[in-house]
Amino acid sequence: MELILFFILGGMALTAALCVVLQRNPVYSALFLIHAFLCIAGLYLLLGAEFMAVIQIILYAGAVMMLFLYVIMLMNIGGEGPEYAAGERMRRVINIGGVLAMISVIGLGISTTLFYGGPQLGPKGSYGPRIAENIGNTKAIAHLLFTDYILPFEITSILLLAAMVGVVYLARRIRAH
Amino acid sequence: MIPMSYYLILGALLFGVGVTGVLVRRNAIVIFMSIELMLNAVNLTFITFSRYLENIHGQIYVFFIMTLAAAEVAVGLAIVIMIFRNRGTTNMDDINLLKW
Questions:
Q1: What are the structural domains of chain A?
Q2: pLDDT tens across B53-97, in order?
Q3: Do residues A8 and A109 touch, judged by C-beta distance below 8 A?
Q4: Which residues contact A44 (CB under 8 A, 6 or more apart)?
Q5: What are the pLDDT digits (tens) for A93-151?
Q6: What is the domain class of B4-87 according to CATH?
Q7: Are the Cβ atoms of A20 and B14 closer than 8 angstroms?
Q8: Residue A14 and residue B17: Cβ atoms within 8 Å?
Q9: CB distance from A21 to chain B under 8 Å?
Q10: What is this model's ipTM?
C-alpha cells in the first residue's frame, strides 16, 4: 500500500514538476508548482514527518506560492515564445487529456488514502519503538530546535530580519527628483 | 517498507527537472520556481535520510532550508519587481546590464 501511494504521489509530483518547466504561462507554472508541493507534502507524511508536511503546506503552498502569484499578476506578464499560435488544436487535446489523467490519478490517490493505515511506526516498521515515539513528532523537533539548535535558530531570526529590511528597501517607491 | 533508493531517485529526478527549468526557461519568475523545486527535492532527500537513518536531525535541517527559501523568495521577487520597473521585462535574455 505504501508503495502504491509512493508511486501515485511521486508520479504526480514529477508530472507537476515537468509541467512547471514546460508550461508557457507563468501562472500555470505556479499552480502546477503548488500541486508539486502538495504531493511532496504527501510524501513527507508517507515518511512519517508530519510536522514537516504541515509546514510544507503552510509555508510553501500557502505563503511562498501566494507571493509568486501576486508578483506574476502584478507584472501581468504573458507567455513566452512565438509558438503560441502553432498547433492550437493539438495543444487543446493534450491539455484536456492531461487534466483527465490528473483527475483520475487524484481520485486514485484519495481512494488509496482511505484504505491506508498510516506510515509503519513502532516495532514492525523501520523505526525502533524508542525512536517511533519521538521521530516525526512536533514535540521532538521543538525540543531539539530549542536545545541543540538554538544558535542556528536565532541566526535564522536575524536572517529573516535582514531579508525583511532588504525587501522593504528594494521595493520602496522611488520618488522622481 | 519502500527501499530508500526510490525516494532518492525521485529526489534526484525532481532536482534534475529543476535544473532543466533554470537552464531552459527565460522568464525570471519561472527560473525562481525551478529553484524552489530544487530546494524541495533536497528537502525530500533530507527527510528520506532522516527516516531511514532513524535520526531526526535531518528534519531540523529541512526546517532551516524552508525558512531560508522563504527569505530568498521574498528578496528575489523584490529584485525581479525592481528589474521589471526599470527595464519593463522579466526575460533573462534582455537583462544584460552587467554585460556592458
A1: 2-76+89-170 (1.20.120.1200)
A2: 888 888 899 999 999 999 999 999 998 888 888 888 778 888 777
A3: yes
A4: A50, A52, A53, A56, B44, B47
A5: 777 777 777 777 777 767 766 666 555 554 444 455 555 555 556 878 888 888 888 99
A6: mainly alpha
A7: no
A8: yes
A9: yes
A10: 0.91
